[in-house]
Amino acid sequence: MKIAFYAPLKSPNHPVPSGDRLMARLLIEALERSGHTVTVASELRSFSSDPAGEARADIDRDADAEVARLSTLWELEGAPDAWFCYHPYYKAPDLIGPHLARRFGVAYLTAEASYSRRRNQGVWAQNQERLIESVRSAAVNICFTRRDRDGLLEGASEGRYVLLRPFIDPAPFLAQQPRPQPGRLVTVAMMRAGDKMESYRMLAAALACLPHAPWTLSIVGDGPLREEVASLFASLPPGRITWHGQRSTQEVAEILRQAWAYAWPGTGEAYGLAYLEAQAAGLPVAAQAVAGVPEVVRHGVTGLLTPAGDVGAYAAALERLLTEADERDRMAEAARRFVTEDCSLERAAQRLDDLLHRHLGGRA
């Protein structure tokens, strides 16, 4: 099939790395592995934190221009078989695809669309309506978490929904055998305001509860709040923290395989691809049982999940992984197996191909 791919929040070609950019790229690779031809249809970023302001008006004008540009292109070269929209939500709606799909009779589908009634107020109401209209009209909506699916069902019960487990390309993390160093924890995360900062804050507080435990922590990541993050760990015993900064995938894989466990609370995480990367490298995970994290970490099997906001419980989970070596080893083996069997790029490619033929089969 010929697929026009669009990510209104962040293009797969965006220069700044993030989980959104990575997932967009993985979806494209999975589709291409199944023999489909994928083209990034537009670079327009519809994201706005001020939907009533001048920026919103500019985005609407740019979206109209993109609809006109693509209409002309498709009239000349032919329309694709499907428009694939990744991660539309109330701050980044798809302002292009629904118009083109109706005009050209192109199948429309979404992946990781999200909806919550509590956003159905004030200046966001129009974007919420746009989102629900798109979801209702979609041939299929691919949901990475039950939480997202349940939210969409609440807004559009008549929509068509399927679950696809979040996935990664595990190859760089499976390439070498783990060489875990006892006591070494690791986290990989950007340093920015909001949920990331809250997770760093919780991690520092939990480690402060464990001065007696034989831990060290490797932190991989960078960002605008690097100094603020560093200050959170300043009162911890000296020599325990190693700051790696931003690293390549291969370098991250090498750091992970030498660690004992992966420590990241995951406040507000949609699901967290970094958890899958850590598990592929053979690490059990300590995280909170929040949002979509239970979709990618199996409590008691591949890691330990603790109640949201409970620093004491999170510290206890870290100590358990640090001190219960046999349990840690069992979880490490299960974690690698889980990603390989359930969350791999190859498995996702097969699943996506099946979904396309089942829901769009007449167009292939």
UniProtKB/TrEMBL annotation:
Keyword set, alphabetical order: Glycosyltransferase, Transferase
The enzyme's E.C. designation: 2.4.-.-
Keyword Translocase attached: no
GO molecular function: glycosyltransferase activity
Membrane-crossing segments per the record: none
Residues of the Glycosyl transferase family domain: 188-337
Entry keyword annotation includes Glycosyltransferase: yes
Protein name, entry field: Glycosyltransferase family 4 protein
Alphabetical list of Pfam families matching this protein: Glycos_transf_1 (PF00534)
